[in-house]
Amino acid sequence: MSAAQGPGVTYAEAGVDTHAGDKAVELMKDAVRATHGPQVLGGFGGFAGLYDASALVGYRRPLLATSTDGVGTKVAIAQAMDIHDTIGFDLVGMVVDDIVVVGAKPLFMTDYIACGRVVPERIADIVRGIAAACEVAGTALVGGETAEHPGLLGPEEYDVAGAATGVVEADEVLGPDRVRAGDVLVALGSSGLHSNGYSLVRKVIEVAGWGLERHVPELGRTLGEELLVPTRVYASDCLALVERAAGGVHAFSHVTGGGLAANVARVLPAGLVAEVARGSWLLPPVFDLVRTLGGVPWGDLENTLNLGVGMVAIVAPESVDGVVAHAAELGLPAWELGVVGDLSGLDAPGAELVSGTKGVQAGAVRMTGEYRTS
């Protein structure tokens, strides 16, 4: 066969605009550079990000911690509202706050954005949000990728993902090995829905026929504004709590998909159960709105959303007051959530036991009482 005559098919005609990608990079680079300390080498735009790890030689036995995640269907809310500079906090929070659970300091992060069409200003907004959240977390944004996928994603659609690496001393790793009966659960409040359960939330508002522009008096803002509240990034504050408590913080649990009980159970040793009193905090209005608007059963709500608790610290009894007070100094709502005990009394009336989640055979959580909504 002879080659086709005429101008032929160009990459731009196939739906990929490399010039738009270059413009997006130009718009975002200052925000990315703002996260770079002297440990980041090689400047901006290389094939790989370089991070000077020579500081690790000062560790006795450094362990690297890594995590990767995305934002989920919350991006659909950002796209519908055409607001893209906050979704980065959701991405960074989902990634670095899994690392801090083991006591690791997040060192650096990379991001990946897939879109149907590169709109430079939109991509730059997304990355600026990621960079701003990395600054809050004390993490360098050392690289990323924007991929244009015409025909796979619609022109206005995109998805984001990221990965991060951190470091912790081997003898300072937090987790089940440190948790003992008598330890106290301290809740760190969420900023809202964070970035889990949006498939349920979006289905509820679809069935109810509510628009994102609808003003909701009990929320004090529009529905869309509430649904787009950024995830609280806990990493640097959690590390500060660990340092101040001087060994008093034994474990953290990041409350993401699966809800409070399932995630706390993952960081308890086998044979221990944490008892959580549902009435120990006031349910933020957005969660009760989802429940009542959609007729969502309490069990589904509890197993899907964070219900106002974004992170849980498991703390030695003598350190509880100090942790709660220091959290308040950091601007974090904190309160006693429950206590860790043994497996006795599991037949108590109204006790609901959650264990064996995420394939981890560890401890268990017993939820008791009822939630307070007012």
Automatic annotation (TrEMBL):
Enzyme Commission designation: 6.3.3.1
Keyword Ligase: yes
Location of this chain's protein in the cell: Cytoplasm
NCBIfam families: purM
Domain PurM-like C-terminal: start-end pairs: 180-342
UniProt organism field: Cellulomonas chengniuliangii
The protein's name: Phosphoribosylformylglycinamidine cyclo-ligase
Domain (PurM-like N-terminal) ranges: 63-168
